[in-house]
């Protein structure tokens, strides 16, 4: 079971975005791997993404999200606000989901994974 949470901490006039997660990855054959981050800062440095669910799919999607931000200059340089970054991330995820191929297990096309994408939303604070 994965625990992944994010919340906003208000301190005086400012806000902080906090992410927390467990660190155990699990895979086929009953494998487990401890001390693995399920939280990844995004290169724009005002946001992060975390996941819960099937590691085999969630981890590559999380990495691809971070790379998509890194390679897309408006997102990397914070010219793209968080709602647009969210839409960009969903497009990346949907395109990647369409590319999953499994002849023997068609149910793996859309495996169970959830994500938290959070960051600073302009002057309005955390999103």
Give the SSE map.
Layout: E1 4-11, E2 14-21, E3 25-26, E4 32-33, E5 39-41, E6 47-53, H1 55-71, H2 73-76, H3 82-99, E7 113-119
Antiparallel strand pairs: 1-2, 3-4, 5-6, 6-7
Helix pairs in contact: 1-3
Query: What is the number of helical segments per DSSP (H or I, 4+ residues)?
Result: 3
Which runs of at least 5 residues are low in confidence (pLDDT < 50)?
A: none
The total of beta strands comes to 7
State the secondary-structure class.
alpha+beta
The residue fraction in helices comes out at 25-40%
Instruction: Characterize the biggest β-sheet.
Output: 3 strands, antiparallel
* Strands ordered across the widest β-sheet: 5-6-7
One letter per element, helices H and strands E, the order comes to EEEEEEHHHE
Mean pLDDT: 83
Based on CA atoms alone, the radius of gyration comes out at 16 Å
Protein model, in words:
The structure is a single chain. With 127 residues, the chain is an alpha+beta fold. It is 31% helix and 29% strand. It has helices at 55-71, 73-76, 82-99; strands at 4-11, 14-21, 25-26, 32-33, 39-41, 47-53, 113-119. Strand 5 (39-41) and strand 6 form a beta hairpin. 18% of the residues are buried.
């Amino acid at each position: 079971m994965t625990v992944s949470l994010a919340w906003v901490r208000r301190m005086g006039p400012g806000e902080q975005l906090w992410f927390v997660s467990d660190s155990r990855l699990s895979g086929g054959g009953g494998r487990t791997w401890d001390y693995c981050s399920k939280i990844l800062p995004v290169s724009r440095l005002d946001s992060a993404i975390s996941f819960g669910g099937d590691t085999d799919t969630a981890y590559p999607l999380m990495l691809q999200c971070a790379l998509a931000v890194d390679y897309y200059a408006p997102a990397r340089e914070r010219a793209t606000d968080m709602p647009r970054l969210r839409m960009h991330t969903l497009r990346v995820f949907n395109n990647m989901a369409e590319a999953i191929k499994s002849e023997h297990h068609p149910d793996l096309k859309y495996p169970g994974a959830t994500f938290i994408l959070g960051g600073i939303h302009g002057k309005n604070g955390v999103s």
